[in-house]
Amino acid sequence: MTSSTQSRQSRPRRNQIEAAAPPSKPNIGSLVLLSSIVISFLAASSAPTPLYATYAAKWHFSPITTTVVFGVYAIAVLLCLLVLGRLSDHVGRRPVLLAALALQITAATVLTAAGGVEALFLGRVLQGIATGGAIGALGAALLDVDRRRGTLANAAAPGIGTGTGALLSGWLVQYAPAPTHLVYLVLIGVFAVQGLAVIRMPETVSRKTGARAALRPELAVPSNLRGPVLAAAPILDDHRAGVDRLEAAAHARRRRRRLRQRRSAEERDQREVNRLHGISARRGRHERRLYRSAADSDAPAPESGA
């Protein structure tokens, strides 16, 4: 009787302890996964940069078109970051990340099959929507997993991703076959693997109401963060300027390489023309010698004087 009473009294206490216990935090694998998604998203955003010269030569569009392609991606990222930046606080990190990964796969598929400027614009807009929608969820999820390490990952991963995408794409353009397809196929494979990993990743926040209200943009910086934001603004501007200089240098190298290849082809063609002219001239001289020899053999012999 006493033991049964004690077990009944201990059961509610045990349930209270379990309910009060905090949920288990995701392990370090979640931190690595989230960081890799940041890197792959920003790598995808810079991957088309070395291909713009190839696209321009193939589709005959002007430099202003390249500028507009850059601009539509940036606008899409900004608008979606403002509208969707807080959505993961209400619906969870995983649904937002899975939707963004699916959209990145769609964008890469569009760019792989692109046959003109319109497809290029569409692919870049889809990339911008996916990146802008996911970047807020990724940054928050990294802090959910580990505040100290997540802060470091948030600071380092964007630069690594931007540089990696441009370098990988440039290497494929120079050395690999079908560069306008291969780089996007690689990204599709990466996004698919990351999507499977996100499905298995523990959720870091609980669902809560107010998702529709979270879609209203808020253009404000908390008062305690205004100083650090102002201090970091010149650094971000210098980083963007550095990326622009690297892209300009890469474009200049590609242009010089194309000029060298064109000059080499012209010189090779000229040598071939000169060789054919030499053959033709030698043949003409040989034919003239044969003609003179034949004419000399057919000429009548001179008569001797009486």
Describe it.
Helices cover 81% and strands 0% of the residues. The protein has helices spanning 2-20, 28-46, 52-59, 63-84, 88-91, 93-112, 117-145, 147-175, 179-200, 211-214, 226-298. The termini are far apart. It is built from eleven helices and no strands. Residues 1-24 have low confidence and may be disordered. With 306 residues, the protein is mostly helical. The chain folds into two domains: 25-213, Growth Hormone, Chain: A, CATH 1.20.1250; 233-294. The longest helix is centred in the C-terminal third of the chain and has 73 residues, at 226-298.
Query: Any idea of the CATH topology of the largest domain?
Result: Growth Hormone, Chain: A
**Which CATH architecture of the largest domain is right?**
Up-down Bundle
- Helix and strand run: HHHHHHHHHHH
Reported for the largest beta sheet, the result is: none
Strand content: under 5%
Look at the structure and give the CATH class of the largest domain: Mainly Alpha
Percentage of residues in helical conformation: over 70%
**Spans with pLDDT under 50 lasting ≥5 residues?**
1-24
Task: Report how far apart the termini are.
Answer: 168 Å
The CATH superfamily of the largest domain is known as MFS general substrate transporter like domains
Tell me, what's the shape?
elongated
Report the C-alpha radius of gyration, rounded: 34 Å
Mean pLDDT: 79
Alpha-beta classification: mainly alpha
Count every beta strand, where a strand is a DSSP E run of 2 or more residues. Answer: 0
Whole-number total of structural domains: 2
Count of discrete alpha- or pi-helical segments spanning 4 or more residues? 11
